[in-house]
Design brief:
Number of domains: 1
Strand content: 25-35%
CATH superfamily: P-loop containing nucleotide triphosphate hydrolases
CATH class: Alpha Beta
Helix content: 25-40%
Distance between the termini: 28 Å
Number of strands: 10
Bound molecules: adenosine-5'-diphosphate
Radius of gyration: 19 Å
CATH topology: Rossmann fold
Strand order of the largest sheet: 6-7-8-3-9-10
Largest sheet: 6 strands, mixed
Number of helices: 8
Structural class: alpha/beta
Order of helices and strands: EEEHEEEHHHHEHEEEHH
Length: 247
């Protein structure tokens, strides 16, 4: 089943085209690495998917509904590009997580109280015992876990993460990817992970979407590594760099 469909999308901020005729679709359970150089339109694409900006051409379908009519935003979790909190930012861990809560239909709210959902997300991301701390007092890794807890508090079916690991040290990063894999494999959460780290995304994601204003490649890593078109595009050396860590 298709969870996201992007069809013939084109976008320009001013004069230069940032996205040009972009089309792809994502199935339930996919784990997509969305990769491309700086300025290739990744963040713009995510903003369009969330309806924050409107494309000049093309359409987006979320769970089969045109995104302009889409109301069930609790089904989609979003981790924006890293925001550093200042030490005096006046919100606790629990408050930050609860900001992610969208109201569902009445019947669902009766079954699961908001408190339970917030606690569950904090427990999953291992921040329950620091729930009353100010977000700004925490380490970068802890802050990131809180932001993930906020992104998953509605138990989304689709999770979109924009450069989530840039500020994390290697050990915390490994742990973070481990948690994402569990969401994907055990809970069947569909994941789109935006990254410029093309060298290691193959270890985690099952499919690669390489964007550079248009879709340069979309398919499995195996297909990517065997693709002669991609050898032409990246050069043998470049393709090898991307592929050799994907064992
Ligand atoms: P990426 O996330 O891949 O780095 P972006 O989507 O952020 O790429 O940016 C794509 C292009 O659009 C870049 O050239 C960037 O400078 C430009 N751009 C991004 N945001 C704006 C904006 N608000 N106004 C004008 N140009 C923008």
């Amino acid at each position: 089943m298709k969870i996201l469909s992007v069809e013939g999308l084109s976008f320009r901020y001013n004069s230069a085209e940032v996205l040009s005729d972009v089309s792809f679709s994502v199935n339930v359970g996919d784990y997509i690495g969305l990769v491309g150089p700086n300025g290739s339109g990744k963040t713009t694409l995510i903003k369009i998917i969330f309806g924050l900006i409107k494309p000049q051409k093309g359409s987006i379908f979320l769970f089969g509904a045109n995104s302009w009519n889409f109301k069930d935003w609790y089904r989609v979790g979003y981790l924006p590009q890293r925001t550093l909190f200042n030490p005096y930012f006046p919100a606790t861990v629990k408050e930050i997580v609860s900001l992610g809560l969208f109201s569902k239909k009445e019947s669902e709210v009766i079954n699961k109280s908001k408190e339970t959902m917030i606690d569950k997300a904090m427990r999953l991301m291992d921040v329950l015992d620091i729930k009353n701390k100010l977000i700004g007092e925490l380490s970068g890794g802890q802050q990131q876990r809180v932001l993930v807890a906020r992104a998953i508090v509605n138990e989304p079916e689709l999770l979109i993460l924009d450069e989530p690991t840039t500020a994390l040290d290697p050990e915390v990063r490994e742990n973070f990817f481990h948690i994402l894999r569990e969401f994907n494999q055990d809970k069947n959460v569909t994941i789109i992970l935006v990254t410029h780290d093309i060298g290691s995304i193959g270890k985690y994601a099952s499919r690669l979407l390489y964007l550079d204003k248009k879709v340069i490649f979309y398919g499995s890593f195996e297909e990517f590594c065997l693709s002669e078109n991609m050898t032409d595009y990246f050069g043998e050396f470049g393709q090898h760099l991307i592929c050799h860590r994907h064992d």
